[in-house]
Structures are given as C-alpha cells and as structure tokens.
C-alpha cells in the first residue's frame, strides 16, 4: 500500500513538472489548463491525505517556472505567485461567502480580465524603468529588460519620480498574431505562446517590430519584503492612495500604464459613492452589488470573442489591502484572489476518419479528422484522441457526430458523442502494428509505443524536436523542410544536420539560393548553443534540465554539437 502511494505521488510529480516545463519554458502545452489543474489538485489531495509520502521538492510547494538560462536571474522583492482556480459559479459564491464570514470589515471586490499572456515585473527607480523581469519560479525571474523596452505602451519613464515595482501581463492582439503567424513554417499554437516566445529572443531588434502590448495590474513597494505577509501587502507609502486596489489601478493610469479597460467593482452603494469622480474617468469600469458578480461573469463570457485579445478567465480580488494582509497566502497562491476559468467553448462536428500518429518517443496517438468547425475564432479540423482508453470511454467511431471544444482555448478535444454513425461503425481500435514502420506496438501504462528507434516517424519527430523553438531553435529548418530532406535522403538523423550540403537543394522546388543560405545561417548559429541546450534538445527519455546538469557535472560535456551520437551511445 505505502509503496503504491509513493509511486503514484512520484509519478504525478514527474507529470506535473513535465507539463510545467512545456507550458512555462517551451510555450508548447500538450494538455488543457483544466486537465493540468486536475492533475495538480490530485497530487495536492494525496499529499494532504498522506503527508508522510509528500516530497520536499513537490511542485505544489512552488509556482511553475519559466526560468531560462539564456538570461540573467533577478530576485523579486515580493513573491510573484500563481492563482488558485475555480471553474464552477457555486464554488465562487462559496469563496466569497467565506471571506465575508471571516472578516468584520465591509467587503468590496474587483473582477479583472485574466489575459492569456506572459507575466512581467517592472522595476522603476526615481521614475525610470531600470529592469523588467519574468515571473520565473515566483521568487527569481529572468532579466529581459532590453526586450521589454521595445514594447511601446510600457513607459520608459514616469511623470513622477516613483520608485516601485509593478506586475503586469504582456500579450498580443489576435489580429496581429494571425497576421504575423500565417506565413511562418513553424507556427505558434496561440497568441500566448507567441508573446512568450518573443520575450525570450536574444536580440531585442527581433522583438522591436512585433506589436506586443501590456496591462499592468499590481503595484508593490520597491523594497524587498523579508518575511512579510506576502504579495499585495507591500503597498508603496508614496502611492497617494489609501490602501485600496481600485485606487491603485486609477493611480497607475495617471502614471501612464495601461490597466484593464473593463473592470467590475462590487460593493455596497455607500462604498461606491466614494468613487464617483474616479468612475467618471473610467467609463468602462462597472459598479454593482456583490450579488451581481455571477451575472457580470456570464456577460463577460459572452463578450470575450469581441475583445480583440485572448482571455481565459476572470480574476476576483479583494479590494482592501488590510484584508489581503489578514488573509495571507500559501507558497503557491494568495488567498485574497481567485481565478475563475471559463469552460471551453464547444461546437458540433462529424468524425471523417481516425488516423494514428507516431511521435519521437514512439508513443502512438489516435487523431480524429473532423469536418472543419470554428471555435473561439480558430478553425479546428484535427482533434487528438489521446489513447485507446479515451476512445473506448467515449465509444467513438468514424461517422459519429461529436461535441468539440478547445480546452483552455488551446487544445481541441472531443467532449462527447452526440449521435452515433448510421453505418454501424464500431468503437475505434488502434492497430497492433506501427502505421509508419509496421513494428509490433508495445503497451506501457495507458499508452502504446513503437519500440523501433529507426522508425521513420520517430526519426522525423526527433529531428523536428531538436531543431524546434525552445531547443536548438534552428531557423528555416522547420518540419516541412525536414520532411523534404528526409525524402531526398540528404539526412537520416540528427547528426546529419551538421554534415549534409544544403547546396544539394539547388534545383529542388521551393528551395532557391536565398532560402538555402538562410538554412546554412541557421545551422551555423546553432553550433554556438551551450552544451546543456544541445543535450536537452536530443529528447532523451528522462533527461530534463536537472538531469542535464548532473550529466555535465559527471563529464558529459566535452564533445561538439555535431558529435552527439557518442554521448547518445554512452547514455
């Protein structure tokens, strides 16, 4: 029994850390926010029920990290934590009710949009922007000042000599994202991934031409809070406000920051009267009683597609800083704020066929090709079915009419079968042999794998992963180009990238002298990557950032980028 619990906790820790890495560092999420939250909460429940098996390095004890060793690290003056999440209106009502019961002061709340972007922490000294830092692990972030200085709506200087720290979100409008993304070979899945990728570029000149935007939503003291009550408690003494968040937001607009244009303020009429003049200056801000929050959230859900930028929920915050201090925080999130996440929007479509794909690790995944349908502004025609258990639980077959969503506004998913097919097609079963090489498939847990490391699909996946963003990032060597190189026999695996002659592509359709030179330049630049990046880019099983550090310390770090096969054999 004890061994089973420990194994389950260890497995969940590994899965949560993997998906944190995909989301925060690589901007390549594989599961929806709701699926991640369910996994995270399952781990949290087990740790509470069996504290003797909880690990000291558990991800429940910290926020997800986007720390990148390409940029210098900077300590935050106060913890930049995550948010606890709710998905059901009744849970939000319970959360508000508990705050009212636990506090004698009259409660007022604000509801702000949860923009799907990248967190930024802005440091100002005497009114000048001196540092811009990512959230990182909540306690330490990466210094990306030069990139942030190119974002036009972030003030380089303030009209007053303020020394303080501001927290905000960097994002890109949907129309700008679509325009910039459409001609790229390696397209980004969504605006959030795009903005996150831009902020991690090494050259600020590459960021300056991208129309990134910002909203700023918190103001902290510039002094480091050692052992203080936590985020939101460090209200600047020179802020010119009385310790209420609504006044902080108004004050930040006076300093030149963009704040949410549509904020909901919920309190008694008596409290609202105090801010009559302030609301005149912000016609988009809404005043209502606490009983109107649910109705406000419903209306915001209906308007989200008309905003021009992506939001994946709303954030409900306590207005009074004294109450925030009293409520405190955990190591993961403040107790005075909660994120209400939107349910994934759905549409109806029909399964045209089901194919199986083989990834670089050999994992075989069924994918449904559906009649194209629009969801949240995007056209969906392919939907992952994950594994055989998923197909069986849905009783899904070709020809079925299904409800399709974009979970977390990112990942297409079949939610349920609405109508069975008329042809009598039975539940889809994955073939026993690899669709790429014919090798007999091997089950491992909930998934099945092709064990053949030379499988063409696995080779393609390995090379594509190696060259992708977040790995070696070899520009102009995207999936379509790799596919063509394999077809022509110019490369057979990762080492060949550094030995084949790109000039051999002359005369091949789609490859002119300019494109060939760009491929050469991209390969040449990749040779300067540090060895830890090279090793992680190989995609070896269980070799994440921590394992890479240990291997390098143990002597796996003395070979050149084009000689990876020697290390592959040793590993």
From TrEMBL:
<dbReference type="Pfam" id="PF01653">
    <property type="entry name" value="DNA_ligase_aden"/>
</dbReference>
<dbReference type="Pfam" id="PF14520">
    <property type="entry name" value="HHH_5"/>
</dbReference>
<dbReference type="InterPro" id="IPR001679">
    <property type="entry name" value="DNA_ligase"/>
</dbReference>
<feature type="domain" description="NAD-dependent DNA ligase N-terminal">
    <location>
        <begin position="4"/>
        <end position="471"/>
    </location>
</feature>
<dbReference type="InterPro" id="IPR010994">
    <property type="entry name" value="RuvA_2-like"/>
</dbReference>
<dbReference type="InterPro" id="IPR013839">
    <property type="entry name" value="DNAligase_adenylation"/>
</dbReference>
<dbReference type="GO" id="GO:0006260">
    <property type="term" value="P:DNA replication"/>
</dbReference>
<dbReference type="InterPro" id="IPR012340">
    <property type="entry name" value="NA-bd_OB-fold"/>
</dbReference>
<keyword id="KW-0520">NAD</keyword>
<protein>
    <recommendedName>
        <fullName>DNA ligase (NAD(+))</fullName>
        <ecNumber>6.5.1.2</ecNumber>
    </recommendedName>
</protein>
<dbReference type="InterPro" id="IPR004150">
    <property type="entry name" value="NAD_DNA_ligase_OB"/>
</dbReference>
<dbReference type="GO" id="GO:0006281">
    <property type="term" value="P:DNA repair"/>
</dbReference>
<dbReference type="GO" id="GO:0003911">
    <property type="term" value="F:DNA ligase (NAD+) activity"/>
</dbReference>
<dbReference type="InterPro" id="IPR013840">
    <property type="entry name" value="DNAligase_N"/>
</dbReference>
<dbReference type="Pfam" id="PF03120">
    <property type="entry name" value="OB_DNA_ligase"/>
</dbReference>
<dbReference type="GO" id="GO:0046872">
    <property type="term" value="F:metal ion binding"/>
</dbReference>
<keyword id="KW-0436">Ligase</keyword>
<keyword id="KW-0235">DNA replication</keyword>
């Amino acid at each position: 029994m004890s061994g089973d619990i420990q194994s389950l906790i260890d497995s969940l820790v590994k899965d949560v850390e993997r998906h944190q890495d995909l989301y925060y560092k690589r901007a390549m999420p594989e599961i929806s926010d709701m699926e991640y939250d369910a996994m995270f909460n399952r781990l949290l429940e087990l740790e509470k029920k069996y504290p003797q098996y909880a690990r000291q390095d558990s991800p429940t004890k910290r926020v997800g990290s986007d720390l990148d060793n390409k940029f210098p690290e900077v300590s935050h003056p106060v913890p930049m934590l995550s948010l606890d999440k709710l998905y059901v209106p009744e849970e939000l009502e319970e959360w508000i009710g508990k705050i009212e019961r636990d506090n004698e002061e009259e409660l007022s709340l604000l509801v702000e949009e949860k923009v799907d972007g990248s967190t930024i922490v802005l440091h100002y000294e005497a009114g000048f922007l001196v540092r811009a830092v990512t959230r990182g692990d909540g306690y330490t972030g990466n210094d990306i000042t030069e990139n942030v200085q190119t974002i036009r709506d972030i003030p380089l200087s303030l009209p007053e000599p303020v020394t303080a720290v501001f927290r905000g979100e960097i994002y890109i409008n949907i129309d700008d994202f679509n325009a910039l993304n459409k001609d790229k070979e390696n397209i980004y899945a969504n605006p959030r991934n795009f903005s996150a990728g831009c902020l991690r570029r090494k050259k600020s000149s590459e960021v300056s031409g991208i129309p990134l935007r910002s909203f700023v939503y918190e103001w902290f003291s510039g002094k480091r809070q050692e052992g203080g009550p936590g985020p939101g408690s460090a209200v600047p003494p020179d802020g010119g406000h009385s310790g209420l968040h609504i006044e902080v937001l108004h004050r930040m607009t006076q300093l030149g920051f963009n704040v949410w244009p549509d904020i909901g303020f919920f309190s008694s009429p008596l409290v609202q009267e105090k801010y009559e003049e302030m609301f005149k200056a912000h016609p988009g801000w809404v005043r209502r009683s606490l009983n109107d929050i649910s109705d406000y959230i419903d209306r915001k859900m209906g308007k989200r597609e008309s905003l021009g930028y992506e939001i994946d929920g709303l954030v409900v915050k306590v207005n009074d800083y004294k109450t925030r201090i009293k409520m405190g925080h955990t190591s993961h999130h403040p107790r005075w704020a909660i994120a209400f996440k939107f349910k994934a929007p759905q549409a109806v479509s029909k399964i045209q066929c089901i194919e199986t794909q083989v990834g670089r690790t050999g994992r075989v995944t069924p994918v449904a090709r559906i009649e194209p349908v629009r969801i949240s502004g995007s056209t969906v025609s392919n939907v992952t079915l994950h594994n055989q258990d998923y197909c069986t639980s849905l009783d899904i077959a070709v020809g079925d009419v299904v409800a399709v969503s974009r979970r977390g506004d990112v990942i297409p998913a079949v939610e349920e079968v609405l109508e069975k097919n008329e042809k009598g097609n039975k539940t889809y079963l994955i073939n026993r042999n690899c669709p790429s090489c014919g090798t007999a498939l091997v089950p491992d847990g909930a998934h099945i794998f092709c064990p053949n490391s030379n499988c063409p699909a696995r080779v393609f996946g390995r090379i594509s992963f190696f060259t992708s963003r977040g790995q070696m990032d070899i520009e102009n060597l995207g999936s379509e180009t790799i596919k063509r190189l394999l077809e022509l026999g110019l490369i057979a695996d990762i080492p060949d990238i550094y030995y084949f002659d790109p000039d051999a592509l002359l005369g091949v359709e789609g490859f002119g002298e300019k494109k060939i030179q760009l491929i050469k330049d991209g390969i040449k630049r990749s040779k300067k990557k540090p060895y830890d990046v090279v090793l992680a880019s190989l995609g070896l099983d269980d070799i994440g950032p921590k394992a890479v550090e240990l291997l390098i310390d143990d002597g796996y770090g003395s070979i050149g980028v084009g000689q990876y096969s020697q290390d592959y054999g040793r590993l």
